[in-house]
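Researcher: Next entry in the queue.
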Amino acid sequence: MFFQWKISAMHSIVMATGKEMQLKQRLFDMAKAFTPQDHFMFWGLLLFLALVYMPVYQNYYANSHDYNLLTRGFLNYDAWVLIKVGRPVSALILSIASSLISTFADISFARFLIILLFGVSAYLFYRWLRSNSVSLIHALLLVVAIFTLPSFQVYIAMMSTGIKISFCLLITIYASQMAFKGADQITTPKTVFNKYVKASAALLLVSLMIYPSASMFYWVMLSVPLMGVGFDSLIKNKKKLVTLFSLPLITSGIYFIFGFFMLHGIQISESHKFVVSTEPMGKLTWFFLGSPIIKALNLWYVPSTDIAAYIILFVILLGILAGAVKAINDNGKSTQKNKSKIIIR
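Model: Structure for this entry, 345 residues:
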């Protein structure tokens, strides 16, 4: 019996050592693939964001949520509220953060760490753009434009919000990458639920339980290959397209059910943003004609105006129309060329 146990223990040690060696080899391969240009872009983006957002960690201050977190403690502040509105992972992140924060200096240091996390997300998004044939200049401009939007400025300025969204964004980016890996491996109905698809679904659920609106960055990641060179290949591969679109929809549906049961029994007014509305049309009208869409179209400029929203909406629609016309013309030209080649042959 003793010898059997000893052999079993040695076998477990060998297996563990083998897995450790595989992990080390993977990390080594990743480090080897990290070219000097990658190092330059990674540290360059971190430095850029650190310089742009320097005032938020140089000055000692606390916004309303941050101050309540500092003076009252997280457990006495909004831990239970976050859990009941369907954000338990967000509550966990804030509870850990609150246990490490006791002074204004701690809050400033936390904001600096948030900037670094956003820097990692910015680099991952840059790599994603480059891997989908976006030029270097355009990739950098897109990254800078997105990660310096007023919404990001607000997230970084408010530590209690930024700490949640910075983690949520990282998880969402990895979830979208896992979704593409999983979709590429689908060849038969049995391979639909491969390990990458499962990992992507799990990560998306976690991100939804942190900050649902930030998890919508998945659609930004998905739009890159759809709007670029990879569009034709995605259209041809219908299984891949269905997987990439259905994953966030299914996980959002699961999260909605989870949130619905969590909200059950809480006394919240019908107009509150967390409530499951009994008037869906009224909620849709509020979203598309009310405050959210107007503020979003104003790029979260305070105070927002209807005129600015309509101008930006017009520019967006004009861009979509111009892109559609160009795509139709290009398709017509390619069809004409193919016909000419057939005639010549």
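Model: The chain has a mean pLDDT of 78.
Researcher: Noted, moving on.
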